[in-house]
Amino acid sequence: MTINEAQDEIIEEFAFFPEWMEKYEYIIQLAKDLPLIDGQYKTEANIIKGCQSRVWLHPEFKDGKIFFTADSDALITKGLVAMVVKVLSGQTPKEIADAEIYFIDEIGLRTHLSPTRSNGLLSMLKQMKLYAVAYQAQSLQN
Amino acid sequence: MTINEAQDEIIEEFAFFPEWMEKYEYIIQLAKDLPLIDGQYKTEANIIKGCQSRVWLHPEFKDGKIFFTADSDALITKGLVAMVVKVLSGQTPKEIADAEIYFIDEIGLRTHLSPTRSNGLLSMLKQMKLYAVAYQAQSLQN
Amino acid sequence: MLQNDADIIAGIDVEKVRSDFPLLTRKIYGKPLVYFDNAATSQKPTAVLDALEDYYRKYNANVHRGVHSLSQEATEAYEGARRKVAAYINAAYDHEIIFTRGTTESINLVAATFARKFLKEGDVVLISAMEHHSNIVPWQLVCEEKNAKLEVIAINEHGELLMDDFEKKLTDKVKFVSITYVSNSLGTINPVQEIIKRAHAKNIPVLIDAAQAVVHLPIDVQKLDADFLAFSSHKIYGPTGFGILYGKEEWLNKLPPYQGGGEMIKTVTFEKTIYNDLPYKFEAGTPDIAGAIGLGAAIDYINSHGKDNIFKAEEELLEYAMDALTSVKGLRIVGPLTNRVGSISFLLEGFHPFDVGEILDKQGIAVRTGHHCTQPVMDFFCIPGTVRASLSFYNTREEIDKLVKGLEKARMMLG
Amino acid sequence: MLQNDADIIAGIDVEKVRSDFPLLTRKIYGKPLVYFDNAATSQKPTAVLDALEDYYRKYNANVHRGVHSLSQEATEAYEGARRKVAAYINAAYDHEIIFTRGTTESINLVAATFARKFLKEGDVVLISAMEHHSNIVPWQLVCEEKNAKLEVIAINEHGELLMDDFEKKLTDKVKFVSITYVSNSLGTINPVQEIIKRAHAKNIPVLIDAAQAVVHLPIDVQKLDADFLAFSSHKIYGPTGFGILYGKEEWLNKLPPYQGGGEMIKTVTFEKTIYNDLPYKFEAGTPDIAGAIGLGAAIDYINSHGKDNIFKAEEELLEYAMDALTSVKGLRIVGPLTNRVGSISFLLEGFHPFDVGEILDKQGIAVRTGHHCTQPVMDFFCIPGTVRASLSFYNTREEIDKLVKGLEKARMMLG
Ligand SMILES: Cc1ncc(COP(=O)(O)O)c(C=O)c1O
Ligand SMILES: Cc1ncc(COP(=O)(O)O)c(C=O)c1O
């Protein structure tokens, strides 16, 4: 599944929930279901500080692809983190670097992507892209 | 003539001029008619700097009364200066110190008395009162 | 439901008051807005908006030194605002009121000019552990520059100032005390009169950060004997971008000028510049004329209700809110239970404030979440932040009830 | 009279434009106001007043960090204004636009922070003899503090910068050049592009005071290659109390923060404070949200006419005014005859500017008299001040004719 296919799938899923409550309940469910990150990786180095919530992000590079695990101290952020990980994890560095994340906007949580909100999610996305660019440069060298 | 009688006389005179032009022409005429200050007293020490115009003021204390001569580089200010001198000159220090100058307001030139206009006239009035207070203190000592 | 009875408190008819504030009719996600972010910024009554319109439509002109009528009118209104502010906080002179951009700039002005002239290596500036960043960072900046030290009066677990600690830290090295009257994150009212008295006993000047206090408590700078006092227009029903620094004449005369430019000078030559008298010495550049006039209108508006009536109504609403909130399951108040005003910070035990805030927002309830620009307070309590509901006299008991219901929904959804 | 023809210039229909500015319908002493004090402050179009109203009535909230919807809306509008300003002066990045209180504060910010980090004893700051006090006094203050020297590029009797003198004074000791684009008292347009080029050849940064320029000339900071550029909202149809500092990213990153407080920090502890990224590093405290939105609306308004059309119309009006005024008996222009914009300073030979201004005011004509915050210019010309008529694109030829008549009446009355 490409990044955009994954995003479209989420958007479709959310279309089933006309009520904001249902959307949020779904996101919160995602957050609760997913033990996102291995305890050993919830380190200071892997922390991404937002103004409101914190996110932990750990990348692994395997077979030309990046696999992310992540977590957040805020539940709604964690749910969104879960979805972003679902969308980006297991893709190639180039695909991640070039990806445009639009599903959060589309499902009506655009404030989570607004730079002025300055919460952890946006910083996490930036960080994921930085990793992607770094791995890309690395693969090119090899 | 008391200070207030002199002021009222000016106000009455101005009542004859319903048009602003006539009022100003009268003031300007006053300014031109009166060689207000002896050249030797137009010194740096006697200068009162407003933001817009400068005023020279020279006091003389004689027989328990203060006699002022003055001048200004702006003609309208000079006309007003002439009237103020007419009103206050030759009065006792106490009368000058206690005087309330209302005629300028009444004849419709109140902006000349507004502290925010910060022109020379207001500073001159302040200076006249300072002289009066000084002479008053001096007379009390004697 | 005794809604009618409940909503006329201390002669304040809340429904009538609400109709003065156009924004309060807003809907958010289709629900009537419940605005509980008043500590961040207050809403503006029509009277203030009309004053702004009136200025721009009828007598907008640059102030001072203008020969033309428009400029005179603008100047009179502008200086009239200064007189209104002076009267509102009972300053001894109008020229003790300096117009600034806000509390933050007021504090920076004092910190920078005081430090330039009076702060030496090894000196101490004393603040408290519950200060807003705006009353921390300016002092950090000047202490760093002057190799002085910033000392901090501790607070207890109720978010109250430890007066013992104050006494202990008020050494001879202290050259300045800067303290908030009311904490924006905790709601604590500090004993500033006592603090000033003790500092003055050692000849130490005191700045009071009244950003939160001025809108909820009567302020009399002469009775307080404050040397400086700062607040922001936007938190007291006035326009954004405007604020006040009150300073005792004596102190303002002692301090060197802050910014240079038009207005703050008497004469300029390249060799020597003579600074203007108070208050202009500290007001460089074209001022925020509309801002001043707007704040003046806000003060008129407060006076039209009587500030004591407003404060009394707020007190009763706060009591109602504290009762209602403490009955919410798992809700923990962060801050004192009594002797407080304005903001109520809390946590829903087990839930992140950000999550709670977001779910409240979806129900049309505007609260603030996070550190509220008082990170050290959050660090002290070892929490990532709080949910803060801050009240104004235009809020109703019904709105408090909605908040309680909203919190219960949040608990249900997140739990 | 070809009134109709005359009043549609460069696609600008003056009568229609005037109806956008409510204040222009004012009467003064029963006569229609003729507003020629635009260099002091411009009038505001309804579009700007509506934007302010709209903000306060519909989405007034404190910006940034707010979890609730209102705060999001306010933040988006506020940051949208930054983008509009960046586009208007063609900044490379939005974060190169710092919101300040006005030109004066913008210059003070640069002077204070540059001096703190880079100015040493014996260094030279270079300004010109035609600077506004706001571009003199901030540099005097920092030069005094750092024992640096303020040097002044001379002007000639037409009020033009002497480029030879600039070249001569641009020594290796010069660490900063701060220069006005357009003189507010003389109307002179300075060759700032050339000045920047020569200063950059010696690696010296340049600040452009664009307070007067931005409303009459197209500005492209990248083409100019300016390191800093400052202007005020109130002079470009926007609200009072707001202004802009443009700075090259590289320079803004190099400078230390100016004021401390909310917004400009990332994290605060009493031990260590981490400053925020650009532009917030320089924006301490709650900003003037309405001010930003108002300036944004002013820029939209300009763009709706096309700035080139506005500037073209102003050029033609200026030409008309210069022709008309130079034909007035005994009138002496103070400043250049060509390569000028905005302000026309003059003297009626033999009469004090204050007298002339007062008699014009009585005829409903608002001009400014005095030194226009450029005392050194007046000292250079050995005059107590000038009468200054400053034009905007909403002024008409008919108004110029009234000014000429008004001056003739003044001469008659005073003569
Ligand atoms: C050239 C110039 N520089 C600076 C300023 C100061 O601008 P402000 O008073 O808006 O800060 C002005 C305005 O009077 C000006 O004309
Ligand atoms: C106690 C306190 N001090 C200072 C400030 C800063 O005020 P402003 O951001 O208006 O400058 C605030 C507002 O957030 C505050 O609550």
Helix proportion of residues of chain C, in percent?
Answer: 40-55%
CATH class of chain A: Alpha Beta
Strand content of chain A: 5-15%
The major beta sheet of chain C can be summarized as:
7 strands, mixed
Q: Sum up the overall morphology of chain A in one term.
A: globular
How would you describe the overall organization of this protein?
The complex is a heterotetramer, with two copies of chain A (142 residues) and two copies of chain C (415 residues). Chain A has a single domain, classed as Sufe protein. Chain: A (Alpha-Beta Complex), CATH 3.90.1010.10. Helices cover 51% and strands 14% of the residues of chain A. Chain A contains six helices and three strands. In chain A, α2 crosses α3 (75-88). The longest helix of chain A has 22 residues, at 120-141. Chain A is globular and about 50 Å long. Chain C has 415 residues and is α/β, with parallel strands linked by helices. Chain C contains 15 helices and 19 strands. A seven-stranded mixed beta sheet of chain C has the order 6-12-11-10-9-7-8, with helices on both faces. In chain C, strands 15-16-19-18 form a four-stranded antiparallel beta sheet, covered by helices on one side. In chain C, α3 (46-59) runs antiparallel to α11, α11 crosses α12 and α13 (353-361) crosses α15. The model of chain C has no long low-confidence stretch (mean pLDDT 96). Chains C and D meet through α3, α4, α5, α6 and β13 of C and α3, α4, α5, α6 and β13 of D. One pyridoxal-5'-phosphate sits between chains D (102-104, 132, 134-135, 180, 184, 209, 211-212, 232, 373) and C (262, 285-286).
